[in-house]
Each structure stands twice: as structure tokens, then as C-alpha cells.
Amino acid sequence: MLRVQLGEDLSAETLAAVARGEQVKLIFGREAQQRVKRARATVDAIVKRGAPVYGVNTGFGALAKERISPEDTGTLQSNLLLSHAVGVGPDMPAVEKRLSLMLRIHSLCRGVSGVRPQMVRWFVDLFHSGWLPHMPEQGSVGACGDLAPLAHQALPVIGAGKLVSPKGKVMSTRAALKKLGMEPMELAAKEGIGLINGVQVSNAIGLVAWARLLDLSVTADIAGALSVEALMGSHSPFDKRVTDVRPHPGAQRTSANLRQLLKNSGVRKAHSACERVQDPYSFRCMPQVHGAAKDALTFVGEALVREANSATDNPLVFPARGDSISAGNFHGQPIALPMDFAANALCSWGNISERRVSTLIHPSMSELPAFLTPKPGLSSGLMIPQVVAAALVSENKTHAHPASSDTVTTSADQEDHVSMANFAARKLRQATLNAERVLGIELYTAAQGREFNKELKAGVGAQAAYEFIRKHIKPLKHDRFMADELDQMTELVGSGAIRKAVEKACGKLRV
């Protein structure tokens, strides 16, 4: 079980593990407690002085000029949660909600939010219970943060909203808290706004997609290597000297992966007498195309991890100076742009994968039987899986349209530029699944292509991929129902199972 020290920087490895569903124990340590206490004391002093501070003793958004009396500051915070919890759409997946809740608690423990330590402990207890708030995923524009979904996440602390059991049962919060032996809390000044300013929901969705992309980045190289062997293609484009003279890091990593996957290939030896001079771009340009997507993945990972370790409240409380600053750390643009970039990277992986599938099933391109069936005509073979891949990559081109290029004015023009980070994250989630499906189709296709030249052993990694697929799916000798098999391939890709099996045979591959 992972132990997470709240308020201390979380590593990329820890965040990826949580995003993949690993069990977590949150530690609200002494240093974090002291930071939270100091920030809370600063808020109490600000309230006592009576000077206007946004969201502490004023209204919110366009109502920021409205002063709130000291006796109403708690009601103000509860009203904020109730009025903002108006999200729509399906409940977020549990792994995303769990990560979002952890990130919000973690942000509070940076010591600039001003909530009380007992509120942090309340949410830590909720997290450890396994119960999660019911959180409709639509309704955020990504500034002042993910207001609607985070308000749903925060509602249980005041006994409102709904909670979902570890087994998926939805209950009213009051009934669920009674079952858990927990009591709601009355909010103090600053605590409501402290729970909802920030883009932890968008970041959680993005981190879950990013963790899957770490596997997909390697799996794309595995699929490409198996396709090269099915085509009996050239290995020359993956010579280290090629990327040494154009040293983009991602291209170098992809090229190294392909050399590792194709090591000791019998196909390469057979290719030495082949008259084919050059393979199609989708084969020989893998280092350049896959590599550029790897570089994009590095960029988005750095941004999301940095965001996970950030404080995003407004206002921010600075105990060392005893003051607060109303600013814009809640704005989602720093992660919206990278997530849009990642969606474009997924187009790279998906587009080139679909082209390799098309080449393999095309007899004049591959010199293999049409649609990779032993009986073309009587059987259609892999004709339509390529059509499905084409549909998915086309859909991903729409998902790649940048959400962050849009903005809609909200809150009576007070909040006049927003990031759309939440939609960028949800697009990325769907685009990731689509790309996993496309790569599953390529692996299925490449394995079938190998049936026609399997007397020549493939490179060590490609051979391991082929053998792993054959443990789960038999060769296609005649037309059969394949939909369930393609779903199984998607699961093997998305779970990282193929990557693990191949790395066991050929060693660690580079993301």
C-alpha cells in the first residue's frame, strides 16, 4: 500500500500508481498539521480585523462587493457549496474521483488555504472509508477551478449530496455518514471556498489518462515492431545513427525500443536479399512519429505532476506575512493546453497505427493474402477491423480540437476568461481509449500477419508479443465473430499486460 505524505511533493511514480488504482494511505503528518494551523490562525486574524477579503467576508464572483457579517461567514461557506453543486452528466469513474479527492486534500495541506485541521482529518477519514462523493462530471469551465464538480465532492462535509459505496451503491450523505459513524461539520470562514477553488477534478482525469498513456507509448512501439515483422520490413530506419543526427529525445527512445524489440530477428536476416528498397512511412518513420508523441507525453506529464503539487486557492493565505492575496491560481490554462497537446499526440499514435493495419491487409502492399485470411473471397478476414480503426482515428481528430482555444464569459463578466480544462481532460480520456482500441486492432492484425511467415522467428520483443497474443486469441483460419476478441485486445493494451509480457522477454522499454 502506498503511503502519501500530505502536503509534501508527490512524485510522478506515486501519482501514476494512484491513477492506476493502487491502494493508498494518506498521512497527515506533524509538519503538514503545523502548516494548516498557521494558515488557519491567519484567517482567524483577518476575520477579526474586519478588512474585506474575497470569499472570507465578501460574496463570490460578481457579488464580491457584498460584505458579510462575522456571524454569517459560516453560512456563506455552506451556501457556496449548495449553490455551486449543480453539475450534470454521469458520475465520474471511481478512480478519478478518488484521485481528485486526494489531490484536494493534498492542496489544503500545502498550508496556504486556511481551513481547520479537523476538516482535513474529516476528508482523510472519508477517503480511507472507500466511500466517494457522487460527482456529475460535466459543468466545469476550468476557472475559478472545477467549481461544480468540486462542490459535489465537498457536499458530504456538511451532510448534503450523495455518497457512493465501494461497491457502487448510491446513498444520501446523511444515511451513508451514519453507516460510517461520521458526523457532518459546520463550516468556518474560508472553508467552503477552500474546497472548490482549483482544477483537481480536471487534473485527476488527466492524470488517469496520462498513466494509461505511459503504457500506450511503449505498446505503440511493440505494435509497430510486430507489424514490421509481419510485413517482413526493413530494420535499417531504426539504426541509432539516424536519430543521432536528429536527436529529438522521443525519437531516440522509440528507435532504441525498436532495436530492442527486433533484436535477433530471423526476419531481418531474410530481408538482406529482399528487393524492397523502402517501406511505407508508417513503418520507417516510427521513430519520428512515435517519438514526437513521446515528447508530448513528457510535457503533459510534467504539467500534471506540477499541478498536483500546487496550491490553487483564492485567496491564498500567507502566514509569514499575515496576509492574503486574491489572484488566479485556480485557472486551468496551465494544464488545459498540455492536455490538448496530448490529444494531438494520440492522433499521431492512432493515425500511423491504422496506416500500418491498412498496409498489412492490402496484398499489393504487403505481399500477404488479402485481408490476411487464408481464403480471400469466401472469407472477409480483417477487412472491417481496419474500418473500425479508421472510424476511431477520425473521431480522435475531433477530440484533438483544442478545448483551451475557447472561452466563455461567466459570472456576470467578472470571470471573463476560462480554460475549459475539464473538457480538455474528458476529451483526452476518450481519445486515450480510442487509441488503445486502435493499437489493439493493430496487434491483432500483425499477429495474424505473422501466421504467413512465422517460420522466420521475429525479434525477441516482437516474438514475445506474438506469443502473448496467441495465449489469449487463436489465429484466424476462417471468418468468425471477432468483436469480443478485439475488446479483449483493448483490455490487454489498456491494462499494460502486453507491455509487461514483452518487457519480461526483452527488458525495460522507454516511455
Short note summarizing the structure:
By secondary structure, the protein is mostly helical. The chain is built from 21 helices and nine strands.
Task: Say what oligomer this is.
Answer: single chain
Helix-strand topology string: EHEHHEHHEEHEEHHHHHHHHEEHHHHHHH
Secondary-structure arrangement, i.e. CATH architecture of the largest domain = Up-down Bundle
Mean pLDDT: 95
Helicity, as a percent range: 55-70%
Strand order of the largest sheet: 4-6-7
Please describe the biggest sheet, giving its number of strands, its sense, and whether it closes into a barrel: 3 strands, antiparallel
Total domains:
2
Termini, distance in Å? 25 Å
- Approximate strand percentage: 5-15%
Query: How many individual β-strands?
Result: 9
Radius of gyration: 26 Å
Structural class: mainly alpha
* Count of helix runs: 21
The CATH topology of the largest domain: Fumarase C, Chain A, domain 2
CATH class of the largest domain: Mainly Alpha
| Uncertain runs | none
The shape is elongated
CATH homologous superfamily (4th level) name of the largest domain: Fumarase/aspartase (Central domain)
